[in-house]
Amino acid sequence: MRTKLPEKLYYSIGEIAEAFDVNPSLIRFWEKEFEILTPKKNTRGTRKFTAQDIDKIELIHFLVKERGFTLEGAKKRYDEITDELTERIDFELNTIEKTGYPGYFLIVEDFIREARNMNVSVGPGRGSAAGSVVAYCLWITNIDPIKYDLLFERFLNPDRVSMPDIDIDFDDEGRGKVMDYVINKYGDTQVAQIITYGTMAAKSSIRDTARVLDLPLNEADRLAKLVPNMSKLKTIFETKANKLRSEFRPEDLDKVNQLLNISDGNDLEAETISQARILEGSVRNVGTHACGVIITPDDITNFVPVATAKDSDLYVTQFDNSVVEQAGLLKMDFLGLKTLSLIKSTVKIVKAKYGIVLDPDNFPLDDKKTFELFQRGETVGVFQYESAGMQKHLRDLKPTVFDDLIAMNALYRPGPMEYIPSFINRKHGDEKIDYDLPEMEEYLNETYGITVYQEQVMLLSQKLADFSKGEADVLRKAMGKKQKSVLDKMKPKFLTQASAKGLNIEKLEKIWKDWEAFASYAFNKSHSTCYAWIAYQTAYLKSNYPAEYMAAVLSNNMNDIKSVTFFMEECKRMKLNVLGPDVNESYYKFSVNQKNQIRFGMGAVTVSYTHLR
Length: 613
Description:
- By secondary structure, this protein is of the alpha/beta class.
- The chain is 53% helix and 9% strand.
- The strands form three sheets. It has a six-stranded mixed β-sheet. A three-stranded mixed β-sheet has the order 9-11-10.
- Strand 10 and strand 11 form a beta hairpin.
- The longest helix has 20 residues.
- The protein is globular.
- The termini are far apart.
């Protein structure tokens, strides 16, 4: 406790307000926020504060009131605190204070700091949270939003208060330690997992109904197979006959028509389909959200109904994910990422063999060997870039800068994938790069004139039509979710404000039309940047420490004999010798000897024997 207060068990609001030289009402505001952080401590019914509580008030004071906590981190993160950076930090802190989430940031900062203290690997960020400079300065994320044009309002919109969402990746072996820390800190009566409800899908509702109605198994199976994969009975039966062709693929259309014909009968099959339509969508079973955790300011039963789960010692909420968020409860996602364990294992092997301590967070972004590996498409075992299709595009693209990798991560998914050939041709000068307006080059230059990211639409709407940061985010969301009513209101404003600046109205119409067509496919650059960075780290290790990296890859997959076989083939292609198990040299996991040969791990031998049995 740094604040000058006499040492005693409890402090009143008045004493704290005097020590911090602020109005008591401000302390009450902070108290409302940091109640999330610690259990209530009451004496004779009066709210009192302990020295530990005051430590947390100090953090909130630094974060929100004095900006000291954030600026302290900024001085370590940035060589120079420019006016632009200060303005960005002020904007973010004001938004955090206005929306009432300083406590949220402090909780996340606390358990991430503790995770690193416990030697748990923490990812660079995930999703839109990477757009926050405050999160970067607090070491919640590890990607510089200023450098990559990532936007805070994509994460927390100042004009539309919604729950922030900071999802954190931990190495899958250390995730449990962080969970235990949170439970021990806040108490198991204030931490709960989130329930999930499994519903009856079309095929399962047919099979379950058939079993009750005693329809023979082979007939039930035949009926279920008439439903196209991922289709709903509701869609099939509520779509008009003349529109079925546009809803289903040609190979599925015949099955759909058969199902419709059967349903028109009066036999047991028709009755089965009729009852299955009623059952579809009803709750069939419950489960537990894989990574979602709720933290409450007091006993959780005061806020939500709870239940017990057979596979967890924690309570689970009886509200599912969507209802929990709507209720305004604090939700955290603790995600386990095997790739972080892989990077950690490689670093450990390199240190044991060479005495070199690698720092993956500071790998150089211009490493020649790493980009040559991407250019050859030799990305087996490289996070998110290892599919055959991605390898082909990488060989064609021949990436030379990190921005190319970010773009490929965003483009290689259904929808935007069709723009990859144009992206590649423009990079190599085989296709002319056109900008509808010269003003657009600033934000589209990195992607060769193609709108790849949602952030580009947001930045351009601000530059061309003077949209506010909040309006730009509303536009992004409306385009992504095809909210026609919202778009119809925003289009006239965009055209009017942009044309008032002397921009060509026909060009503006075209730009808006292009945005509507592609923005629904445009990807979150914050997320793409974070995961491209993890991919770069794995590629760096594979290209500079191939034997050590592949040993870690094999260890990371040694519970799956097919994966072990697959990656051993990759070792063979890389001309790395994989020696059989040896009681004198083998460890439990795969290792690398002094001759740079990979030695088979004993743990994988057990799996192989079990598999063969």
